[in-house]
Amino acid sequence: MTEQAQSERGIGPEYLVAGRYRLRSKLGGGGMGAVWLARDTLLHRDVAVKQVTTTAGLDPDEARRVRERTLREGRNAAKLTHRHSIAMYDVALEAGEPWLVMEYLPSRSLAQAMNIADTLPPLEVAQIGAQVADALVAAHAAGIVHRDIKPGNILVADRGRELGTVKISDFGIARAKGDAAESTNGVITGTPAYFSPEVARGQDPTEASDVFSLGSTLYTVVEGQPPFGIDSDSIALLHRVAKAEIYRPAKAGPLTETLLHLLEPDPARRPTMAEARDALARVAMGGDGDVAHLVGSPVYSADGTIPSWAHRSTPLPPPHRRSKIGSTQAGLPAVPQSTPLKNVPRPLGKLQWPPRPTPPAPGAPEPTVRDQVVAWAPIAMGVMVAILILAVLVAVVVLLAQP
Ligand SMILES: Nc1ncnc2c1ncn2[C@@H]1O[C@H](COP(=O)(O)OP(=O)(O)O)[C@@H](O)[C@H]1O
Ligand SMILES: [Mg+2]
Fold this sequence. Notes:
The chain is of the alpha+beta class. The protein has three domains: 3-103, Phosphorylase Kinase, domain 1 (2-Layer Sandwich); 107-343, Transferase(Phosphotransferase), domain 1 (Orthogonal Bundle), CATH 1.10.510.10; 351-403, no CATH class. The chain has helices at residues 3-8, 60-78, 110-117, 122-141, 173-177, 197-200, 207-223, 234-243, 256-262, 273-285, 322-325, 369-401; strands at residues 16-17, 21-29, 34-40, 45-50, 88-94, 97-103, 107-109, 154-157, 166-168, 187-190, 329-333. The strands form three sheets. It has a six-stranded antiparallel sheet, with helices on one face. Strands 7-8-9 form a three-stranded antiparallel sheet. α4 runs antiparallel to α7 and α4 (122-141) runs antiparallel to α10 (273-285). It starts with a helix and ends with a helix. It binds adenosine-5'-diphosphate and magnesium ion. The site of adenosine-5'-diphosphate (ADP) has 21 residues, from β2, β6 and β7. Residues 27-31, 35, 48, 86, 102-105, 107, 109, 152-153, 155, 169-170, 327-328 line the site of adenosine-5'-diphosphate.
């Protein structure tokens, strides 16, 4: 439903959804629909409600299928209870439209955190990754594929008793958001920057594609940009994802090897979610770290405090980097490729990763000719030394060869 149609129906603060959930304020709006803070008037608790799909403009049969699919997804997500995932409470039908009713976590997302911190330290990212992966292991065991793992769907409590607690949201919602067709048929829904290569090529998302998207998400928060770079043109980005050629991480430190393993082009070479979780826990806690020690704990910085980006008192700057984070989109065309993914070299292989352009700091002067000469000097010296060594070698060989 469009914003205009919603406001015509009076959907806004004080609107009562399904006779039970009173809307209070908008928490945000992703690719489709908005998320509202609402009051459950029956149980007297705060909840987050979200209309993920609409039946407006569909014929009655299609509308019924969309409704049923959303209910199915709601039921699926409701099977999952985990300390690091947002609980699904209810699917409410309001004028025939399904709304998801979820646990409300006063929080900021990792996408918002990146507006404060640019990049997060590898040790914090490893803890977050291990906790989210633990929730995803439980989801996969219950037969739920997340389908839309990205920084915007990882929430970190920003106040109260739960401060610093990490929870993943929007389980399986990307499927409910799609058009009426049951099978995707070359049409994909999700967030292009975090798609796995096989999903960009048109395959249905699987547990292994969740592993890749978790890798992309963690890569993004540690590096400050997604593994396939930034492009406001979703189709161009989708082509790069389908080719599976990522930029090598430069700031991931002890997390580098684990990230590259999660980002293997071939789904068969990726770790399972449980293996990914254990590897992330080892990075977070050193050698023999066990995820059991991390589950239920808030995220800590190296100095043992909860990082300042997680505190509500740390102000959020305007979302100047929203295009980098990416929002969920429906109806993207798949981009098949001729090279099978098992033939794409591993990220650790011979591929030459294009160097990342480092933008000059704002106000920094243009490099002068002298700066450029200084920058090239070590290479020139190296070449000269090599020529000298070669000359000496040739001279020795010539001398020895004389009778
Ligand atoms: N359960 C929740 N509790 C608190 N805030 C939430 C919850 N779910 C979503 N939000 C907030 O609403 C914003 C928009 O969510 P959403 O529509 O899913 O968009 P996206 O996932 O693309 O960021 C999120 O970034 C988050 O800040
Ligand atoms: Mg979301």
